[in-house]
Amino acid sequence: MRTASPLRFALLVAPLVIAGSRGAAQTSPLPHDSRGAKPQGWLVGGSIGLPVTDGIASPDLFTLAVHWTQLRPGRLGADFALGTMPRVITAGAAVGLATGGVALPLQLSPGVLLLPSAGVTLAGVAAVEGSGGTTGLNAGLSAVIFGAGSVGVRSGVTWHRVGDTGASTLLWELGLVRIPRPR
């Protein structure tokens, strides 16, 4: 059984760390003018996800999640999510998924954010027969599209490697987020 390669994880995280370490003065690629006010605060939203393992989608194991991403365009911020798999719950088991890490929000235009992220994944299940849990790594890329209002659409994919099975899972997600006011 293979474990997650530290080198592979380092290669995925390195661009985030390098970009975020260029100093607190770093900002997004947008020009500094009165129209260039950037939203700052927390992106908070929910999503539905489709897991794909070894190229096989599992729609019956869809996920529901809540996300929190610290939004400071051009600077590293915290990134968290809590989720579950409703189908597993209906089968009589409680399942929980959590991720924690960092994201580097990049404002590509006044209504488009790109969110590369990386961190750790925690997964646990409890049933009458017993319970268990595992940890792993994740790396993802999401895009948020929003207009003048306070609601946007978030779409993305996250790579997860949990436990020592050697299998990776891609989680494709689509959801809505609350956009903080520009500052």
Account of the 3D structure:
The protein is mostly beta strands. It has one domain: Porin (Beta Barrel). 11% of the residues lie in helices and 56% in strands. It is built from 2 helices and 10 strands. It has helices at residues 6-20, 86-90, and strands spanning 41-53, 56-57, 63-71, 77-84, 94-103, 106-109, 112-127, 130-146, 151-162, 168-178. The chain has an 8-stranded antiparallel β-barrel with strand order 1-3-4-5-7-8-9-10. The longest helix has 15 residues, at 6-20. The protein is elongated. The termini are far apart.
* Tally of discrete structural domains: 1
User: Structural class, please?
Assistant: mainly beta
Instruction: List the total number of helices.
Output: 2
CA gyration radius, whole angstroms: 17 Å
Which quaternary structure do these chains form?
A: single chain
Determine the strand fraction and express it as a percent band. Answer: over 45%
State the helical fraction: 10-25%
| Global mean pLDDT | 84
